[in-house]
Design a protein that fits this description.
InterPro entries: CAAX_protease, Rce1/LyrA-like_dom. The chain is mainly alpha-helical and 201 residues long. It contains 7 helices and no strands.
Amino acid sequence: MVDRPNQQPELESLTRTQVLIAMGVTALLLLFLAKVFQYFGNFATLPMTWQSQQAVLGIGIGFGITAASAVIYQLWPQYRLSASLYLQLVIQPLVWTDLIWLGLLPGLSEELLFRGVIFPMVGLNWVGLILSSIVFGVLHLNSPQQWSYVVWVTVVGFVLGYSAWSTGNLLVPVIAHITTNIITGVSWKITHPPQHPLGKT
């Protein structure tokens, strides 16, 4: 049987508590892995230093990634299905204030591991950039049907990695990642308001 493009497979919904716990535990695990790699590895990591211009650059990159994602969402049905499934699972149970954690937890932990450790560990070159981006994408795979989302996340990983490499500052991809997540969460909340049963408010 072939699924219709606009037909979404059923996923077991998560509660707000489950999503928040999953984000927190995942962030701690990624930070732990980053520290382990740093401790046993023999490589120079990228620094994260505050510079206003590079923070603004990170925000701009975050807006650019979000805009590109919105275009691809409209043009690529498979990505639209895959992204909608993921966003519904993660963002739907959250309340508005939780979107801060949606930005900060993955934004910090994933960038510290993938761009701060894995990228320089493999090598601050094109091979390291490509390989770390692929690993970043593959680790966002929830099911084989989510392959199009993985492709996009890999591209995003490449952009974030290149921004770290070209500026020499991990602050840029961290700010970009946080910005992307928060904008995506806000947009999803606005365009997908909760459905209340009839007769209830």
